[in-house]
Structure formats: C-alpha cells, structure tokens
Amino acid sequence: MFNLDLTFAILHHLAVFTLVGIIAAEFVLLRPGLSGQRLTQLAAIDRLYGIAAGLVIIIGIARVFWGGKGWEFYVGSNMFWGKMLAFLVVGLLSVPPTIAFSRWTSSLAADPAFAPPPAELARSRRFLHAEVLILVLIPIFAAAMARGY
Ligand code: HEM
C-alpha cells in the first residue's frame, strides 16, 4: 500500500546520497593539474550539485509538513535547527567554488590551454574541505532530531 512518509524518506535518502556522491566526485576532480575536459566535467558536476541540493531541500521540507510527525515536532527541535544551520553553511561554502568554476570554464572557452592558477585551485579545495567537515554533522543532527532530541 502507498505510504507517503516512506516515499519521502526513500527520496530524501536518495537525494542525500546523490549530493554526497557529487561532493566526492568534485573532490577527485579538483586537484592540481586540472584543465581541459576535466574542468568542463567539474563545472557540469557542480550544476548537478545545485540540482541535488534543491531536491534535498524540497523533499526535506515535504517531510517536515507531510512526513507524519507534524511540523510542530521539528520546529521545537534544536537538532532540527542545528541541521538546517549546518546545511545553510554547506550551501554558503559551496558558493565561492561555484563562482571559480564558472570563471575557469569561461577562461577555458577563450583559451583551450587554460589551467586554473594553483592558488585559486587550492582556495576552492579548502572550501570543499570545509563543506565536507560540516556535512558530516548533518546526519548526526538528523538521527538525533528523528528521535526527538
Ligand atoms: C532543507 C534541508 C533538509 C530538511 C528540511 C530535512 C528534513 C528532514 C526530515 C523532516 C526528516 C525526517 C526525520 C524523522 O523521521 O522524523 C529527515 C531525515 C533525515 N535527513 Fe534530512 N533534511 C534536510 C537535509 C538533509 C541533508 C543535507 C542530509 C544529509 C547530508 C539529511 C539527512 C537526513 C537523514 C540521514 C535522515 C534520517 C534520520 C533518521 O531517521 O535517523 N537531510 N530530514
């Protein structure tokens, strides 16, 4: 029998795993020596990152309102707000790399031999590191909030 809560839970998990997979792929691509086709791939993956993050938000909000426990269960939970704050911080940390990737792909279009300056690449990598560190907190908050903490 159709179960809305279960459906949202499955979609939420799939979207979250996709998001984590995309961040891992960015980590692999964003290395010294990045250029050409790899750079184009990185920019394409980063666009998917935006789509996956959007899905996580939409499905997450749907779970808050139609997940079965009622939105009151979540708005009173510090763990829920901790999770929202952590997700917001991850989103903000992803902005500077996205801007850099788009600038690099423009440079690549003008000059096929273009490679990102090492200092800029290292800076984007630092942002990605920080994203991963904060992202680890989110499932911890999620598990606690689901159990009423
Ligand atoms: C706007 C963003 C998000 C919203 C509104 C949201 C909302 C929710 C809601 C309502 C639940 C159901 C909890 C329950 O069973 O009572 C949930 C579960 C969960 N969320 Fe999210 N979520 C968001 C983003 C994320 C992200 C980015 C991650 C991971 C990186 C994540 C990981 C999880 C996990 C692992 C669970 C299952 C917790 C458990 O049952 O133990 N969520 N989320």
Structure report:
The protein has helices at 4-29, 36-66, 71-75, 78-93, 95-110, 118-146. The longest helix is centred in the middle third of the chain and has 31 residues, at 36-66. The chain starts with a helix and ends with a helix. The chain has one domain. It is mainly alpha-helical and 149 residues long. Helix 1 (4-29) packs antiparallel against helix 2 (36-66) and helix 4 (78-93) packs antiparallel against helix 6. The model has no long low-confidence stretch (mean pLDDT 96). The chain contains six helices and no strands. Protoporphyrin IX containing FE binds next to helix 1, helix 2 and helix 6.
Quick structural summary:
By secondary structure, the protein is mostly helical.
Chemical compounds bound to the protein: protoporphyrin IX containing FE
Return the domain count.
1
| Largest sheet: number of strands, sense, barrel closure | none
Q: Round the Cα radius of gyration to an integer and report it.
A: 18 Å
Secondary-structure element series: HHHHHH
Q: How many angstroms separate the termini?
A: 30 Å
Summarize the amount of helix as a percent range. over 70%
Low-confidence stretches: none
Strand-pairing-aware structural class: mainly alpha
Keywords:
mainly alpha, binds protoporphyrin IX containing FE
Question: What order do the helices and strands come in, and which of them pair?
Answer:
Elements: H1 4-29, H2 36-66, H3 71-75, H4 78-93, H5 95-110, H6 118-146
Helix pairs in contact: 1-2, 2-5, 4-6
The site of protoporphyrin IX containing FE has 18 residues, from helix 1, helix 2 and helix 6.
